[in-house]
Amino acid sequence: MFNSGYYNSMKIFIASPSDVKNERQVAEEVIAKLDRVCRATLGLRTECFKWEHLPPLTPSPEDGHIQDVILREQVLECNVFVLILHKRYGTTSAGNKVSNTELEVETALNMLERKRNIMLLSYFRKNPENDDLGKQEKKVKQLKNKLREKELWFEEYSSLEDFRDRLTHDLYYVSIRFQAAVTKQRSLRAFWELSNVHEQGSPKLSIIYPPLDRSSMKYEKPDRIWLDRLVPNVSFEDSKTISKIEKTLRLIGHHQIYTFATVDFPYTVYDMNRVWLCMPRNSPGLRQIQNYEEEARFRFEARKGTIEGRIYWRPPKDTTFITIRSPLSNYLQLQRSTMPGGEWTPSHGRIIGKDYAILARFMDKRENRLKDYFIAGIRGLGTWGAGWFIDRRYKSFLKWENQDDVPIQMLLEVTYKNEHIDDVKDVSNMPASYFEKEGNINTIKKYIQELQDR
Predict the structure, then answer these.
(1) DSSP 3-state helix, strand, coil percentages of the chain (rounded to 5)?
(2) Domain boundaries, the chain
(3) Looking at the DSSP assignment, which residues form a beta bridge with residue 313?
(4) For the residues of 156-213, what is the DSSP string, one character each?
(5) Residue-by-residue DSSP string for 368-407
(6) Per the CATH hierarchy, to which homologous superfamily does domain 8-187 belong?
(7) Sheet with strand 8-15: strands edge to edge
(8) Averaged pLDDT score across all residues of the chain
(9) Longest dimension (CA), the chain
């Protein structure tokens, strides 16, 4: 059973004219029961709003008409908009061209178009076929057609009990999704606790990635390699990570995100929050991590010729660093040694792989409390996996909620299977013997077979 004093709140607005009075009563009963159950199981409070619930008031001139108060205080603040219609679309009050219900629906539809976080649940009571529709029924039919054109969901119900069953099912489904979304936002805010320089307005963040150099592209004429390009090439794995970073930041309302290559980033990035990507190839990032040398539990060593890069990691509560090498080359060699060269084929991607990555956050030592994030694998797979971890394993960050000055340092193990990330897990506390075993050829062969059979 959920046992927390913290409650999220989901606000539900009911829009309904007078001919669905019974359905409106049922909706209130369903929401009241939903509230009792969800408080106990999800820590979610559900609140029912409708215009009848407003206390008696006479709006002041600056507040506008009573309907303006309803729209501003209830419809615009709701998370779920429940619309119930039969043959009427509401009564038009003096001074208005449309009914209150119609105005509420249009407000909800405008919120959807502006990408506001709102769920629209529309229910229409089934009517017998009738070619001679009244003015109100025509409006209801036009709204159905409008919802179809916009590809917005609605349901038709045949009886009061049918409506009760449908609404109950839908609201429980929405509640679970709402709570998951709220939990994800809370978790991501705990990680992306961006600091703000006073004159900037909202927080800014720059992502600094190392572009591919021309030697890695195997070009026949390296002197012409940039002829058809606007910006430096970025590896696929890094681009996937950048996409995950931008997605999770926008989910929590951060939109001032800038992306720079290490070869041309402006010095103003040091007046923003910063994400340093793919550290073994990111020279400015390696210099920046030196600012946190006393507290950092990791070091990166870049690849040198045929010698793979590595991470030096100090587990929590330990005083010595352990060496972690990427086993990815062995995974690739075992599975691709018999594959033909030439163009890429689907068989090249249908393999198993593993890599390790660092996911870290520090607060810089200047007064503006800006953050430095280090998101980097030994190989590109690890970097990609770290971005995946932020998006998919977000609950791991809840422990740092309201602790933006506390460093975050995690060692991640990334598993790839058949062209996608299969799993990422936190291995920060594992001993050196674990990584030695994971890099052993016999362990790799066994693991490949296990995942292929799964």
Answers:
(1) 45, 20, 35
(2) 8-187, 195-337+348-453
(3) 298, 322
(4) EESSHHHHHHHHHHHHHHHHHHHHHHHHHHHHHHHH------GGGSS--EEEEEPPPP
(5) T--EEEEEEESSHHHHHHHHHHHHHSGGGGGGGTT-TTS-
(6) Toll/interleukin-1 receptor homology (TIR) domain (3.40.50.10140)
(7) 44-49, 8-15, 80-85, 119-125, 155-157
(8) 86
(9) 84
Q: Among 373, 390, 386, 375, which Cα is nearest to 274's?
A: 373
Alpha-carbon distance 392 to 389, whole Å?
5
Tokens of 218: 């195997």
3-state secondary structure of 80: strand
**Between 57 and 90, residue with greater pLDDT:** 90
* Mean pLDDT (whole number) for 320-336: 94
SS3 105: helix
Confidence (pLDDT) at 60: 47
Tokens of 12: 């539900």
pLDDT at position 110 is 87
- Per the model's pLDDT, the better-predicted residue between 304 and 200 turns out to be 304
Rounded to whole angstroms, the Cα distance separating 393 from 247 reads 14
In whole angstroms, how far apart are CA 313 and each of 178, 324, 357, 430?
38, 7, 10, 10
Q: Provide the pLDDT confidence category of residue 380 given band limits of 50, 70 and 90.
A: very high
Q: How confident is the model over 259-296, as pLDDT tens digits?
A: 999 998 999 999 999 999 998 889 999 999 999 999 99
pLDDT-wise least confident of 110-119, 230-239, 369-378, 417-426: 110-119
Query: What one-character DSSP code corresponds to residue 71?
Result: I
Between 216 and 336, the more confident residue is 336
pLDDT given at position 107: 87
Work out whether strand 273-277 and strand 205-209 pair parallel, antiparallel, or are unpaired.
parallel
Strand, helix or coil for residue 123: strand
State the residue for tokens 């060692």.
411
For residue 73, the 8-state DSSP code is I
Compute the chain's Rg from CA coordinates: 28
What does the buried/exposed string (b/e) look like for 25-52 if buried means 16 or more CB atoms within 10 Å of the residue's CB?
ebbbebbeebbeebeeebbbebbbbbbe
What pLDDT is recorded for position 5?
Answer: 38
**CA distances, 163 to each of 102, 123, 129, 139, 170 (Å):** 21, 8, 20, 21, 11
Residue 3 confidence class, pLDDT cut points 50, 70, 90: very low
At 441, list the tokens.
């050829």
C-alpha span between 327 and 21 (Å, rounded): 66
